Amino acid sequence: MRVSVPTIPDAVLRNAQQQKVTVTHAFAVDRIARFLARGNAAVITGAGVSVDSGIRAYRGHKGSYLNPNYKPIFYHELMEPNARGAGFRQRYWLRSYLGYPPVRDAQPNPTHFALAALQHSSVTPHIITQNVDGLHHKAISDIWDAQRRKEGILELHGTLHRVKCSHGHEMERQKFQDMLGEANPQWKAFMEELERTNSRPRTNPDGDVVLPAGTRYDQFIVPECPSCLLENRRNSMIKPEVIFFGESIPSEVRDRSFDIVDQHDRLFVIGTTLATFSAFRLVKHAIQQHKPVLVLNVGPTRARELAVVETIEIPAGAVLRDVVKQVLGSAAEKNRTIAQMLESGVVRPPPDDYDDPIPRPTGL
Ligand SMILES: [Zn+2]
C-alpha cells in the first residue's frame, strides 16, 4: 500500500517568499471585519489556531515540516491484525500515553474565544476544524450544550478525546488513558513523576519522546476493549478517533463539510496551510460557487494556487479580538457573555524543543 504525506507544492513555497505582503494590524482588523460583517460566514481552522494554547503546528513559517525527519504513523500500520501491528500499537500507545495529558489539559486561547464569540453571535454559525484537540468545544462549552456544539463545530479529522476499537465500540480517551496506566504501573509511576516535577515529556529532534534508557516498547501492554470482552472477544485494536495518514474521512463527515460550505455565503480560513486535501477541496468548492474566501495565516498556503483567494498574513491571535469588537460594535461590550469571551484565553506557545507526539491527521 502506498500512502503519501500531503505537502505544499515546491512552486508555492518558492513563490511565497516573493509574494509575502506584510499588513498592519489596523488594515487586517478592518479588512477581516468588513469581510465578516455581512454574516453567514463559514470558518475553517487549522493547527495555527492552537499554537498559542501550547499545541505546536507541524509546519513552520516556511510551510515545511518543522521536523525534517517527521515520520507519521499510518492507519494500515496501526490497524494491522497481527504481531507487527501489535508492535505498532505498543509504540503508538506508549508515546500517546505520555503525550496525551498536555493536549487534554490545553486551554483555549484568545483566537478560540473570539471565534466562539462570533459563533455565538451567529456571524459565523459553523466552524469546520482540522484540529483534533477539542479546543473550539472548550471555548464555547460554558454557553453551548453538547448538542449545539456538535451542530456548530465539525471536526473534519476527528478528535483525540475519544477512542474506538476495530469493532466500533467507543470510549472516552481519558477512560482508556486510565486503563493504560493501570495496565502499565511502571509507566504510570513515570508519568506521576513527570507531573510532580511539572515537566512535559521531552522529545528528540526526530520526534521521538525521550524515554528512559533501556525502554522496551514490546513490554507495554495495550489493554483490550472492555465491550469486546463482554462479547467474549479479545481485541486490543484500538485507535483514537483521529483520521490517520492513509485513512479516509467518514462519508457523513465529508458530506457535512460540503453542506456547511453550501449553506454559507462566504468562507473564512484561519491558521492552516491547506496542505490536506480535505480542507483544500472545500476552498475550491466555495470558489466554484463564486463565494468569497479570505485566508488568515502566517506563512505560505495552498490558497496561493487559487488566484481569487485573498490572503492576509498576520497572526490570528493579534487581530481577532479587535475584529469581533468591530463586527459586533457596542454588543461586544454590552453583552456580558461576549465581553467575557473577549477577555478570555491563555497565550502559552510551546517551547521550541517541544514536539508533541500526537498523531497527525490528514484526511487523504
Ligand atoms: Zn470493542
From TrEMBL:
It is found in: Mitochondrion. Residues 22-330 form the Deacetylase sirtuin-type domain. Pfam families: SIR2. Its main location: mitochondrion. Residues 344-364 are annotated as: Disordered. GO terms for molecular function: histone deacetylase activity, NAD-dependent; NAD+ binding. GO terms for cellular component: mitochondrion. The keyword NAD applies. Gene3D superfamilies: SIR2/SIRT2 'Small Domain, TPP-binding domain. SUPFAM superfamilies: DHS-like NAD/FAD-binding domain. Keywords: Mitochondrion, NAD, Transferase. Belongs to the sirtuin family. Class I subfamily. This is Deacetylase sirtuin-type domain-containing protein. It comes from Pycnoporus cinnabarinus (Cinnabar-red polypore).
